[in-house]
């Protein structure tokens, strides 16, 4: 089921003492922990003890600089405003169509189809906000931030300042224990130690969390809105644009909730909002989950060069243009982590460059299908959930009871 695209070992290309290596028997390479003792770091000090001059640095130490130079020379960091104008226009037309359909349908349970379509379109809008926050769309940082705030808070209803703070920490240290907020426990446990600490209802969920992952995503849309509001209302530190975001979110809620609860029967109105939020949550979670879940975890005290850290912890999704459209460019997760400000249309070409470098440097480049990635995520979460078992539950006794 797991089919990463890896390079063949480049025999003799790197000195053995300086190659990144994972030691000890590993039952599953997708969930291994990269620890400080496992990693031989390519830093200036150790390298100078081994090599006479900078020109003979190990290639892995300069991998990112070299691949970055190639990407720049190829023009792949250029902006593509017309592409984003077309995508934004299509989303706007779709939302306009949903509003028209909502008015024409009136008191009808077919409104739930409109709610589902709206959930999909708002997820696509969230992809645009994500890209604007990464400075992929417009030419300057402030302009991108303004656009991201308008789309995220005014259209999707999320706090871009909360998302940006959380997402920036993830990009800096993907899958690193204690530093990546995306692997912190939040109902779902992504680390064995977090699963072992779970109690009560959460413990029951954790035991089967792989199978419950996608059903739980139906609540993720509500959670994203809640987390953003909590951040804006209760964070004491200075938040740039706090009141503007709150104003946009409140106005957006009024524009959505007032017509829904004014024009539809109460039960249908709640069903409409439930479907919209559920589709939004599942679509968002299903787009972000394949990117890193089930990939190697980096220990808190480990040191890793930037190129290896980003490539080894990220997973691409195959499928070409349809996967790019479906996932808003998140299917090229390796390239997105190496070049966060790269516009969506250039990621496919960057993939070819990065793959070549990974093959040369013997760095695993992981790519699989969307369905296989979901299987990996479910299997990984279920394996982590085993840490929430009752420590006094004897496996042999359980087998005898089932017999």
Tell the overall outline. globular
Strand order of the largest sheet: 1-2
| Helical proportion, percent range | 55-70%
- Into how many domains do the coordinates divide? 2
Proportion of residues in β-strands: under 5%
Whole-angstrom Rg: 23 Å
**Total beta-strand segments:** 4
Please trace the helix and strand order, writing H or E for each element: EHHHHHHHHHHHHEHEHHHEHH
Mean pLDDT: 84
How far the N terminus sits from the C terminus, by CA atoms, comes to: 30 Å
Please supply descriptive tags for the structure shown above.
disordered N terminus, 18 helices, two-stranded parallel ribbon, disordered C terminus, mainly alpha, 403 residues
Describe this structure in a few short sentences.
This protein is mainly α.
Description:
By secondary structure, the chain is an all-alpha fold. The chain folds into two domains: 16-77 and 292-402, no CATH class; 81-171 and 210-277, no CATH class. The protein has 18 helices and four strands. It has helices at 44-50, 63-74, 81-105, 111-133, 141-156, 160-172, 192-197, 200-207, 209-216, 220-234, 242-263, 266-288, 306-312, 321-327, 333-338, 347-361, 370-385, 395-402, and strands spanning 33-34, 297-298, 316-317, 367-368. Strands 1-2 form a two-stranded parallel sheet. Helix 10 (220-234) packs across helix 12 (266-288) and helix 11 (242-263) crosses helix 12. The longest helix has 25 residues, at 81-105.
């Amino acid at each position: 089921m797991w089919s990463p695209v890896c390079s063949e070992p480049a025999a003799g290309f790197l000195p053995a003492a300086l190659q990144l290596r994972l030691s000890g028997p590993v039952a599953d390479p997708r969930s291994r922990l990269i620890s400080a003792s496992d990693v031989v770091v390519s830093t200036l000090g150790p390298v100078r003890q081994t090599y006479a001059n900078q020109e003979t640095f190990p290639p892995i130490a300069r991998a990112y600089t070299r691949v970055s130079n190639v990407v720049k020379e190829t023009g792949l960091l250029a902006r593509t405003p017309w592409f984003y104008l077309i995508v934004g226009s299509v989303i706007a037309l779709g939302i306009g169509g949903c509003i028209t359909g909502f008015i024409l349908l009136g008191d009808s349970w077919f409104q739930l189809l409109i709610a589902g379509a709206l959930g999909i379109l708002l997820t696509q809008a969230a992809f645009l906000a994500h890209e604007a926050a990464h400075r992929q769309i417009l030419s300057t940082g402030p302009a991108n931030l303004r656009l991201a705030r308008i789309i995220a808070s005014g259209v999707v209803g999320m706090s871009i300042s909360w998302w940006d703070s959380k997402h920036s920490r993830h990009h800096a240290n993907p899958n690193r224990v204690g530093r990546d907020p995306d692997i912190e426990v939040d109902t779902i446990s992504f680390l064995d130690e977090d699963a072992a600490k779970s109690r009560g209802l959460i413990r029951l969920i954790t035991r089967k969390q792989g199978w419950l992952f996608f059903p739980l995503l139906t609540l993720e849309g509500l959670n994203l809105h809640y987390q953003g509001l909590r951040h804006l209302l209760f964070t004491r530190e200075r938040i740039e644009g706090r009141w503007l975001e709150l104003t946009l979110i409140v106005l957006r809620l009024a524009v959505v909730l007032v017509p829904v609860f004014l024009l539809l029967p109460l039960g249908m109105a709640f069903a409409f909002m439930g479907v919209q939020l559920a589709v939004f949550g599942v679509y968002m979670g299903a787009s972000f989950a394949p990117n890193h879940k089930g990939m190697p975890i980096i220990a808190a005290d480990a040191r890793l060069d930037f190129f290896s850290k980003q490539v080894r912890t990220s997973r691409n999704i195959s499928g070409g243009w349809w996967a790019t459209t479906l996932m808003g460019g998140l299917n090229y997760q390796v390239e997105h982590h190496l070049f966060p400000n790269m516009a969506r249309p250039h990621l496919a070409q960057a993939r070819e460059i990065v793959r070549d470098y990974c093959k040369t440097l013997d760095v695993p480049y992981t790519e699989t299908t969307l369905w296989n990635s979901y299987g990996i995520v479910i299997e990984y979460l279920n394996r982590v959930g085993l840490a929430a078992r009752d420590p006094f539950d004897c496996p042999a006794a359980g087998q005898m009871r089932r017999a």
